[in-house]
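// run 5 | inverse folding | seed 20
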């Protein structure tokens, strides 16, 4: 099996049909064990927004670094402020976490790309960082009771039809985002202070592929 982005993770939860514990110490998923067209059972899917159209999350052939599988989300009839999430079925053991994922923008007329969610209290309250190649930027938001507020943005111009690495380190009120190995966002925000679930996110009609999702709790003060 391929080495995942966060090599320090020691506990893999990659099976598509494995039952999660009450809380998750670590989560990593390269989707290698998923059948083509299947959705991973370790991630629960949510769709939010007015008159929302549900997205489809399915394993597909091929992934980052010539891997066998990746996860693609499509929502061709979705529009506007409609958000699509795939979150761990159990909370992460700590509010302080490090996350990473490989992401590729496959299409979308209104929106493209996607990103990482952490400290999700439910499908309507969480932190999110996302890459949108239509806007040539990476941004970080908090979403509270379904209302999304932008906290910071950075200009990013990269090839669209390629895999990119998105990473987050969240410690207390400090949240840092790296893109392709370079730190591009750093904020302090205390809006959501509790541990929660984590996972993936897209908006509107974005068609996006994800691979090598990894989430690990951090001890307080550890980077």
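// decoded
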């Amino acid at each position: 099996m391929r080495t995942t982005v966060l090599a320090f993770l020691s506990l893999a939860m990659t099976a598509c049909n494995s039952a999660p514990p009450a809380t998750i110490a670590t989560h990593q998923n390269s989707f290698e064990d998923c059948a083509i067209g299947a959705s991973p059972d370790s991630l629960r899917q949510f769709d939010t927004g007015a008159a929302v159209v549900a997205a489809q999350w399915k394993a597909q052939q091929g992934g980052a670094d010539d891997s066998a599988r990746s996860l693609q989300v499509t929502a061709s009839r979705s529009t506007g402020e409609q958000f699509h999430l795939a979150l761990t079925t159990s909370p992460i053991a700590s509010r302080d976490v490090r996350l990473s994922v490989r992401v590729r923008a496959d299409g979308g007329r209104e929106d493209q790309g996607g990103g990482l969610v952490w400290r999700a209290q439910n499908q309507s309250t969480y932190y999110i960082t996302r890459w949108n190649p239509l806007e040539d930027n990476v941004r970080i938001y908090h979403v509270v009771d379904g209302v999304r507020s932008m906290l910071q943005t950075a200009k990013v111009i990269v090839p669209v039809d390629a895999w990119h690495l998105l990473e987050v380190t969240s410690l207390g009120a400090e949240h840092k985002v790296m893109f392709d190995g370079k730190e591009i966002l750093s904020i302090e925000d205390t809006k959501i202070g509790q541990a929660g679930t984590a996972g993936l996110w897209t908006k509107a009609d974005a068609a996006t592929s994800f691979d090598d999702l990894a989430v690990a709790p951090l001890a307080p003060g550890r980077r």
